[in-house]
Amino acid sequence: MKKVILPVSLALLAGMTVGCSTTEYKKYAGDEAKQVASILRENGCMECHAANAPLPFYGNFPIIGSVVKADMTEGARYVDFSAMLEALESGQPVSEVDLAKLEHTAMSGSMPPAKFSHMPNHWGTSLDNDEKVVILSWAANERKARFTSPTVADEFANEPLQPLMESIPVDSAKVALGFALYHDTRLSADNTVSCATCHGLETGGVDRKQYSEGIKGQLGGVNAPTVYNAALNFAQFWDGRAADLKEQAAGPPLNPVEMGHKSFDDICTVLAEDKEFTKTFSEVYPDGFSQSNITEAIAEFEKTLLTPSRFDQYLRGDKSTLTAEEQEGYALFKANKCATCHVGMNIGGQSYDYMGIKNSYFDYRGTGLTDGDNGRYAVTKQESDLHKFKTPTLRNVMITYPYMHDGSINNIEDAVRIMHEFQIGTTISDTDMAKIVAFLGSLTGEYNGKTLQ
């Protein structure tokens, strides 16, 4: 084992503390979830991976105190296991992202870092082989039970990325109505903006602008996310303020910058002036126009916007659909921790993640902070949620530029480089960059039988 030289102040701890035992988990044989929970507790994981973790007594020591505080902040920003620990102990479902992050840690042996596990009071906290087996077995079983796609080939069933399902059950009459409403500019106060204005079906489900233009030429404060596959997101908007597609559809029409109506009563009045459309609407919704009916129809249409890709065919068992370079890119995508946030069928959209874990993205950007940079904090007002954003899907990423919540990055290579530098803390080589970008190209899907452009 590589020798680690500790500061004198840490060496003094040797006479004050004893090594940690990590065999407690064996008491829960037969219950993998509680075994994993025990490993998280006994191995000291929660000392850094919890937003409310108390500062250890040596966190106030000279020299090392600032290092300890920085490590705790970084650890909690990467993943806060508090909710996962509670779920494991109570038999509740866990986050797909938390699962992927813990699984990657066990496979890579990357945690805890040497400067933590070699502290005298943390000796014995590194995962041993038996603990890794428990974690990986639990992760595989949990994924199989809750996250495996019904269309995946057996050999890829335990992949962190999964192929799309064939479809989502919908009401076809509501879908047709929702399609019409999605393209209807009467949802805006001046009849100039529809849902499709900012989320064009011919442009990757986005408008390819840094900020979308609403009524009277007003610009929004964040980049418009794609509507394609949005039904698979665990929440909607960058800050997650809408729980589902129906709730999301109610936002823009009343946003003064976007579509500018004062109320849905106003929208219903405008639509009711169209006798033919009123007749069509009433055939689907006998109770007529209302916010609930309008937004439900739009959401029903958006559930159909799934875009299967060559990568989905690969995960379904047809390996010929990906080139050797694309397959190598997928392997790098997983090895470089990309698949710990961009997970599941939507290859993202399942968590809120901090932007700039390793370095300050906002200092790098150099334009000052805006309200759009608050992220999840705008909803929760919790300091730990500041600069956390819903991780976007990477499906169709090659055609949904510009990138990031602020739309400040115009090409995919810069996006990949920035994510490595600021989220992982590494510099990616040109060779690896080319392979990962090739893999991302395989995520461009089809809609209505045509490849998106």
From TrEMBL:
Keywords: Heme, Iron, Metal-binding, Oxidoreductase, Peroxidase, Signal. This is Cytochrome-c peroxidase. GO terms for molecular function: peroxidase activity. It comes from the Bacteria. It comes from Parabacteroides faecalis. Residues 1-19 form the signal peptide. The lineage of its organism: Bacteria, Pseudomonadati, Bacteroidota, Bacteroidia, Bacteroidales. Pfam families: CCP_MauG, Cytochrom_C, Haem_bd. Residues 173-278, 324-444 form the Cytochrome c domain. It is found in: Cell envelope.
